[in-house]
Amino acid sequence: MRTPIMAGNWKMNCDNDEAWELAVAIANEKGDVEGCEVVLCPPATALTTVLAAIEDTNISLGAQNIFWEESGAYTGELSGPMLLSCGCQHVIIGHSERRGRFGSADEDFTPELQQVFGDTDASVNRKLQAALSHGLVPIVCVGELLSERQEGQTDEVVSGQVTAALAGVEADDAESIILAYEPVWAIGTGEVCDAEEANRVCGLIRRTLAGCVGEGTAEQIRILYGGSVKSANVVSLMAQPEIDGGLVGGASLQAESFCELIAAAAASK
Ligand code: PGA
Q: Which terminus of the chain, N or C, has less C-beta within 10 A?
């Protein structure tokens, strides 16, 4: 059986005081949670603050990005050893907000800004390999744009991203990997993907994984859904056999709503 996971992606939110307050509130409520792994992914500036708040709990810490070199002249980047030294066990890789794959509704994100982040399938693969080599659990995000869905390209785009991310990864190393299916049009929009459709795409991801690392390993890998997960839809999402948890943005920024999601995930399987 795959243990469910609820991961909170705080994105570029929370200064250190706010991060402390939020993490303490979640830890007080769900620090001893069982039946669900909980991961908090604050901005890099708050990693050690959150680590202190979740000490001696069942909650673990994740970063939002990693660079594959260990050290050197890479201004602004963070390496695997640095993340480990902050207490991270997980790292999000290839989030659509870093792949430069924002939906066209995001008018603030001009093509120039998209290029600033600019993760590609190739960089996602390098980051995934770097995370594994340092013993960090990668949470690899994949998902189609609204235009790609409308043009019937969802399956091709998603399976292509999975195959590219996993290139060169040995089956023995792949078991710890977590995938997150995040349709870009559902992120931060309040428009959740229909639970059965999300389950279908997660099933496609698992079959694609089986082609990369074998069926046995693919059965072990947890696949999360992300994109406007909230209390109102978490139960139907978690009831789906291929969905093993959630990667949550907005609803992870309030302790009460995130704790509801954790409770639903823990009760789901
Ligand atoms: P959301 O974000 O829950 O705010 O839609 C999810 C994500 O981007 O991981």
A: N
What digits encode the pLDDT tens for the residues 98-126? 886 544 344 555 666 555 667 889 999 99
Indicate which residues carry an active-site annotation.
95, 182
Computed over every residue of the chain, the mean pLDDT equals: 93
Is 228 touching ligand 1 by the criterion CB < 6 Å? yes
Mean pLDDT confidence for 32-42:
97
**Among residues 231, 240, 232, which one has the least CA distance to residue 261?**
231
User: Is 188 close to ligand 1, i.e. is its CB under 6 Å away?
Assistant: yes
Cβ–Cβ under 8 Å, residues 44 and 54 = no
CATH superfamily placement of domain 5-266: Aldolase class I (3.20.20.70)
Predicted pLDDT of residue 99: 85
Closest CA relative to residue 254, chosen from 6, 10, 7: 10
d(CA 28, ligand 1 centre) in Å: 24
Give tens-digit pLDDT for 43-77.
999 999 999 999 999 999 999 999 999 999 999 99
Among candidate residues 128, 131, 91, 130, the one with its CA nearest the CA of residue 9: 91
Q: Is the CB of 182 under 6 A from ligand 1?
A: yes
Q: Closest residue (by CA) to atom 7 of ligand 1?
A: 249
Q: Where are the domains of the chain?
A: 5-266
Mutate to test the pocket of ligand 1, among 9, 185, 253 (most ligand atoms within 8 A of CB): 9
Cβ(118)–Cβ(100) below 8 Å: yes
For residue 79, the cross-strand partners are 67
pLDDT at 105: 42
